[in-house]
Please model this.
Amino acid sequence: MRSLSIEGAWLVETRTFGDERGEFQELFRGGPLSETIGHEFGVAQVNRSASRKGVVRGVHFADVPPGQAKYVTCLTGAVLDVVVDIRVGSPTYGTWETIQLDDPRRSVYVAAGLGHAFMSLTEGATVVYLTSEGYAPQREHAVHPLDPRLGIAWPAGIEPVLSEKDAAAPGLEELERRGRLPDFAACVTLHRALRQRVAD
Model:
């Protein structure tokens, strides 16, 4: 596992084993991930999306606590995965990092409190993501993925396709003004409590 530039985001690489019958891969192993992040990643829900080229999903986030951590893998096709630090008070607040996921041996872990999005780079890109909390619409929110304040460098030559919800989402500054963004100190407290639960 390799930490990304934003605290709480990791690139996870797994192995594939092949023989004359085909191949086998462990998409997710809780033990090594838990050791790296310092607490258990309990899977509450598993989601799958299939997207045509240009579809952007996100930037999505959930209220903290409890937040919603994600483990994201692209099974077929390719997506540009984006992690955004939307935690008010974070040293890297307002920054983002992109990772191209085009091989199921590469996954991204996104801690609770961070924003997450991706753009499908191919037709029918299939993404599976494990989440630490189930879907709760009253706790889930979105930042407009084309917000100039964020300035995410989406690939040139691909027209972004947004859902009605994402197209209507406010920008980062508006969400901060409304007090809707996760607080960095609250995220630190949450993760400290999760680590303490393991120690106990």
In short: The longest strand covers residues 45-51. The helical segments are 30-37, 164-167, 172-178, 184-199. The chain is about 20% helix and 35% strand. Residues 60 and 142 are 4 Å apart (CA to CA).
